[in-house]
Amino acid sequence: MKEKILANRYRLTEQIGMGGMAIVYRAIDLRTGHNVAVKVLRPEYNEDSEFISRFQREAEAASKMTHHNIVNLLDVGMDGENRYLVMEYVQGKTLKTVIQERGKLSPALAGQITIRILSALEHAHRNGIVHRDIKPQNILVHADGHIKVADFGIARIANSSTLTKGDNVMGSVHYFSPEQAKGEGANASSDLYSTGVVLYEMLTGRVPYDGDNPVAVAMQHLHATPVPIQNLAPDVPPALVRVCMKAMEKNPAMRYQSARDMAADIRAALENRPERPVYPEKELEVQQPKPQMIREENAKLQNTDTGKNRTEAARRRRIRTIILTTGLGLVLAVGLFFGIRAIFDRVVTTATVPNVIGLDVKDAEDLLSREGLKFEEMYYSNENVKVNTVFMQAPEENEIKRIGDTVMLSVSSGPSQLTMPYVIGMNAEDATALLQSYGFTLTRDRVISGEYTIDTVVSQLPAANEKVSKDTAVNISISGGKTTVPVLKDLTLAEAEELLKQYSLKISPVLSYVDTRNAKEHGKITGQSPAENLDVMLESEVSLSIYRYPTDRADYSFDVILNRSEQDISLRITLQAAESEVEIESYTHTYPPDMDRKQPVTINLPDTRVYTCRVYQNGEAGEPFTIGEE
Predict the structure, then answer these.
(1) Where is the domain boundary, 88, 106, 124?
(2) Residue 120, C-beta contacts closer than 8 angstroms, at least 6 positions apart
(3) Total domain count, the chain
(4) Are residues 124 and 253 in the same domain?
(5) Is there a single domain that holds both residue 138 and residue 59?
(6) Catalytic residue at 133?
(7) Alpha helices of 127-237 — where are they, by DSSP H?
(8) Residue 342 needs a FRET pair 20 to 30 A away by CA distance; which of 368, 491, 565, 571 works?
(9) Residues 182-203: pLDDT tens digits?
(10) pTM
(11) Do both 362 and 338 map to the same domain?
(12) Domain extent at residue 362
């Protein structure tokens, strides 16, 4: 479907992904000019009710969600038999690719990525959507560092009646939950289990369970214990290990029950804070004095004599003064303490993220280190930014972060250098598809060639194996074959047509006429272009000049009734002999709308044959009729 335009709006430019259910293309939205991702249901499933239902379920799930950490749905529709979804296009890599390229990720980076996945899942779960296929292949890392959760293709909508039994076990075996391994229904807790597996892989560089076949892996999800994270990555904080292992509990009741809670514990682990505090309600109750106790105290005071009352009252006033003074001092001290601590936290334990865009990566790292911030670099090819230069950062400048937080840097690896492939001798369409898959700007021309068969590549520029960039203009010359123009002079039009067919040539449909006073020359060829004996490409057209002897038969006249129109009417008349493959244009004229509807027309018959005549008004053909009878 490459280069196809869907719904007169989305031009597919390249295939960027393929799954069991659909093919994903990068496309250009012709209305906005923006890049989008178009997911098209595989043609073999256009009549499969199960796959159509699953595809529609993805569209329904995506339509319920709009979130900055989810690949958002833009459009959905059909073009003929092709069902498609239009999603936002994310330029970057999958998390799986990042892990394969870098191995273990730092705990800070792994934690931050997991928090963003959980943010997406919190939004989905709140809208009644269970993803059911969380895995690094479905997590997209944008070039600017943003994280996007993709592919809700097997998502379940809560209370959906369209879920088939087979769907219950859907998901990728290395990441799905024990309940999915047993064929039971998945819920929000299942997504959190899969997220724990993804976090384990980021921290250790490997999946927790692996085996020779899917059944062996599924059994490990049910019964095995993974290799402890500390054995594979000793630098991971114990608190983060506890979060990961709690998410991967085999009993759903022992796991986190919400994505929000899991994200909060990850933040606490990354910031070296205690886990989320839990205060029992009884500890928050304020003990109030009971009325009976107050009455008893009053009674005791009333039973004392007056002198004692005055002495006791004075003593009590002094005590109250001391207590109030001490209390006020304590309040001031506590306020001062927390005020100083707030200033300390604000000034000493936080940092303002500087702007490092445009800096060399080493200079950017030095600047971030001076601010007490950590950094992670991810390299992307960039045609417009010098190599080793930072072109995006997350968080952005002037954001307030804690000392030790991580800033993700997108660094240019320079223009992507490609090796020019060898396409000489390839079929032209195959060569075109190959070169466009590299992103080259391609031009093509046709040349005469007897060495290469028609429609194969004769030459290329740049040459094969040259180092080029994606914006290189590439030209290929395509063989048009080779033949020689025969001598046509003094042949009739029918004889010339038959001879040119033998040479794989065609007669041009537009003839020119030369008047003659010799009746025997009527209908014979007096000139040709190209000239005889010249080499030309196969299927080239040869223009002919024909003698015309003025007779009643040579100039055939009849009336044409023009259609009613408020616009100009373009009239075209064609002739075709019964035994000929060539349709000759014999008359063209344009009439303004105020002309008489009945117009006389005279056309030239090129020879003595009988012709079928067709009259076209603004491209619409009338009923054919024959002319030229003896």
Answers:
(1) 88
(2) 67, 69, 70, 147, 148, 149
(3) 7
(4) yes
(5) no
(6) yes
(7) 178-181, 188-204, 214-223, 229-232
(8) 368
(9) 878 788 999 999 999 999 999 9
(10) 0.47
(11) no
(12) 351-409
